[in-house]
Amino acid sequence: MLKDIIDVQPLEGYKLRLRFDDGVEGIVDISKIIEFTGVFTPLQDPDYFAKVRVNPDLGTIQWENEADLDPVVLYATITGQETSNLLNATATAVTIQGVVMRIQTPKTTELSGQITLFGAVTDKLCKIQTELTGRDYILAMKAYQERFPISCTGDLIKENNVFILKNIRDFTLDEAWQN
User: Fold this and answer.
1) Could you tell me which residues come within 8 angstroms of residue 86 by beta carbon, excluding any fewer than 6 positions away?
2) What pLDDT, in 10s, does the model give residues 143-165?
3) CATH topology for 5-87?
4) Residue 73: strand, helix, or coil
5) What is residue 160's DSSP assignment?
6) CB neighbour list of residue 61: distance below 8 Å, 6 or more residues apart
7) pLDDT value at position 90?
8) Does the structural domain 91-177 have CATH classification 1.25.40?
């Protein structure tokens, strides 16, 4: 299951004390995870580094310049787990924003079919497989035909390096693109 950071306390030496929503706490030495280049250059300044905060919308830490770090990587660093093992679990109530990339041949007896979405998972664009029925399937077909972005919520599972979205709810076309 994907874990959200709910508290951060800056410490000396580019270290942070983090607390996750499942109660796990620990200290991470950020200098061992990142290079202080690009968007991370300002973090070299200890005063700027200390301005870190939790972004509850992203479930991770963030600085004023919007530089952030993947909470899965931070959780894995604290717990000593492999990031791939953390991603192989189910994440419930995950909101996916993306586009419909493929609609497999629909079932002829009912309004349903396999859909391939292309959306962001832990800050990476990934293919996500799902099955839709009824109104959601019709919306997916419209999104595919007109290239409208979609948004939906569901339980995200990773099986054999394939993301699968189950128990979908709130499947909608992106409001900015609707008439």
Assistant:
1) 1, 2, 3, 72, 75, 76
2) 999 989 999 988 888 776 678 89
3) NE0471 N-terminal domain-like (3.30.2020)
4) helix
5) T
6) 5, 8, 16, 18, 52, 53, 54, 55, 68, 69, 71, 74
7) 60
8) no
Three-state DSSP class for residue 170: strand
> Other CB atoms closer than 10 Å to residue 28's CB: what's the count?
21
DSSP string, 128-143: EEEEEEHHHHHHHHHH
Copy the structure tokens of residue 87. Answer: 């991603």
Gap between the Cα atoms of 69 and 34, Å rounded: 9
The β-bridge relationship of strands 53-55 and 162-173 is unpaired
The identity of residue 101, as a single letter, is: M
**Rounded distance, CA 89 to CA 132, Å?**
22
| pLDDT tens per residue across span 65-104 | 989 998 888 988 899 877 666 655 666 678 888 999 999 8
Extended strands (E) in the chain: 5-11, 15-20, 25-29, 53-55, 60-62, 91-103, 112-121, 124-133, 150-159, 162-173
- In one-letter notation, the amino acid at residue 155 is D
Domain with CATH 3.30.2020.10 in the chain: 5-87
